[in-house]
Description:
Elements lengths: L12 H17 L2 E2 H8 L3 H14 L2 E6 L10 E5 L5 E6 L5 E8 L4 E8 L5 H16 L6 E8 L2 E2 L4 E5 L4 E5 H9 L3 E5 H16 L8 E6 L3 E7 L2 E3 L29 H5 L1 H9 L6 H23 L3 E5 L2 H4 L2 H12 L3 H4 L3 E4 L6 H15 L3
Parallel strand pairs: 4-7, 7-11, 12-15, 15-16
Antiparallel strand pairs: 1-3, 2-3, 4-5, 5-6, 8-9, 9-10, 12-13, 13-14
Helix pairs in contact: 1-2, 1-3, 2-3, 4-5, 6-13, 9-11
Amino acid sequence: MTTTTISRQQQPPLRAHNRSLVLEALYRDGSMSRADLARRSGLTRPTVSALVSDLIDDGIARELGVRDDARVGKPATLVGIESDAFHIVTVDLSSAERFVGAVVDLRGGVVERASVELDGAVGEAAVGLVERLVDDLGSLTTRPLLGIGVATPGIVDHEGVVRTAVHLGWYDLDLRSRLSDHVGLPVHVGNDSNAAAVGIRTFGETTGQAAAGQSLMVVTIDHGVGVGLVVAGALVEGDQFSAGEIGHVTVDENGDVCACGRRGCLEEVLAAPQLRSRLRQHDEGSRGAVLNDAGRALGLVLAPIISALNLNEVVLSGPADLVEGALLRAARETVRQRTLSAVSNGLIMRIAGSGTDLALLGAASFVLQAELGLT
C-alpha cells in the first residue's frame, strides 16, 4: 500500500483549522478563485494563498486554469479539489453473508470493489477476514491511501474499540489499533448505522440520496437492526455510544430468544436473516402479512423517537425485496397512527435507492473528517 503523511493532526491547530475551512469551501462549493476562497472562508487573501499552495504541493488541490467570464480586470485562476490524488479504503461489515469493501476517491467515487464471504466466522476469524479484505483492497490502487474507514455493527467508542458486536462475537475489540498496526495507515471505525447516516449527509448529492433537511434518521436492516441519527446536522451517538441501538428493544415479550439473551427483540422480527427464515415458512400468499407484521413492529419502535425529535425524514436501508412495499407501508402507517398529525404530516419515510453504498461512503467520511477536517 502507498501511504501518505498529510494528516491534519500533524499540523498546528490554527493552521489545521484554516486549512479545513479552505478545503471545506472547495469540497462543498466546487472550484473557485483564491479571492473567492478568502471571501467564503473569512480568511485573509495571503493566508488563503499560502494554504492553497500547501494543498497544491500535497496534491489535494490543483489549478484549473483561468475563469472564463466577462469580469473587468485580469481573469482569476480557479482552484479545485484533485479528487483522484488520494484514495480511501472503506469496508462495511454489516452483512450476515459477506464483508464488502471499496476503494473510493476523495469525492466518494468508487474505483474498485472487493468482498470476502463470512461463512459464519466470528471472533478472531472475523478479524482475520477484515484484515484480508483491507489487504485485497489496498492492492487495487497505486494512489497514496489517506486511510481506512470501517463501518461495523455494534457499539463503537471514539477510540475505535468495538465494545459489543454480538453477531460477530466481538467484545472490547480494539479494531482500530489492530487494523492500523496491520496496514500502517490511519484507521477510523464507526457504527454501521451511523456511517449510513453520515454517508447521506456527505455524499447525498452525488448518490441521489440527499437529505431533505438538517435532521435525518437512517434505519439499517441486515444482520441486525440499528439507527443512525443526525439532528440539526450533528451525529447523535449517546453517552455510552449506544444511540440508535433499537434492535434490542422488546416488541414481543413472548417472542423468540435473541442473540443478546433476551426474548422478543426487534431484531428477531426484523433483521434480514430472521425475516427471510420466517418468509420461507409461509406460502407466497402470506408473504405480505409477514412483512406487514415486521413493518408494524418497526413503526411501534420508531413512533416515539420521531415524535420526541419531530423528525421529518426516515430512510430505510436494507435488502430491497424485504424493505420495499408492504414493510415500508406498514411502518409508515403505524408511525402516523401513533403520532400527532403535527408530527406525521411532514414525515417522509423512504427507502435508500437500490445499489447505494451508504455505509461504505459513511466510513470514507470518517477518514475525510479525521484526516482532512471535512465535516
